[in-house]
Amino acid sequence: MPYDLIMKRRPRAADSPASSRRKRTGILRSSATADALDAMHEAGVDLEPFIDQSKARRPGREVHRVEGDLPAHLLAAIDHEAYRLGITRDKLIALRLAEVLNVKKVLRERN
Questions:
Q1: For residue 5, what pLDDT is reported?
Q2: Is residue 37 packed enough to be buried (19+ CB in 10 Å), middle (13-18) or exposed (0-12)?
Q3: 31: pLDDT strictly greater than 70
Q4: Domain residues of the chain, as ranges?
Q5: What is the reported pLDDT for 105?
Q6: How far apart are CA 97 and CA 99, in angstroms?
Q7: φ/ψ (deg, to 5) at 51
Q8: How far apart are CA 1 and CA 15, in angstroms?
Q9: For residue 86, is it left (φ>0), alpha (ψ between -120 and 50) or beta?
Q10: pLDDT tens-digit map of 47-94
Q11: Distance between CA 69 and CA 75 in Å, rounded?
């Protein structure tokens, strides 16, 4: 059998244009138009069958990795506080940075 016939694969259902559209939009097989979804929402219909929650995201809240060097005593204090609060080191650092930035924002808006 020629090599090119062996290497060819049959197209799968997942490779169809409809499935790629489904992956892009996050709408499942039981799709509906935007107007139909709007009308269903206004009527109070449960839209759960039409939404793919695994594709849900919160714009502006994506996570980015940050690296930094900290003195050992500061890292020990962070670990102690994180343990006391029952959260991870990463979450404590993010929480404290968010608090500081929020306070600064409030102070700027007051002036």
A1: 45
A2: middle
A3: no
A4: 13-54, 72-110
A5: 87
A6: 5
A7: -115, 135
A8: 26
A9: left
A10: 888 888 888 888 888 888 889 999 999 999 999 999 999 999 999 999
A11: 9
pLDDT at 110: 86
**Closest by alpha carbon to 49, among 32, 34, 66?**
32
Whole-angstrom CA distances from 61 to 22, 74, 88, 103 are 23, 27, 19, 19
Percent of the residues in the chain that have a pLDDT greater than 70, as a whole number:
72
Helix (H) or strand (E) holding 13: none
Specify the amino acid at residue 8: K
pLDDT at site 101: 93
3-state secondary structure 51-90: ECHHHCCCCCCCCCCCCCCCCHHHHHHHHHHHHHHCCCHH
Name the one residue in this structure whose structure tokens are 């919160």: 58
Which residue matches tokens 């219909």?
45
Give the per-residue pLDDT at 27.
46
Tokens (6 digits) for 102: 């929020």
State the Cα–Cα distance between residues 92 and 78, nearest whole angstrom.
7
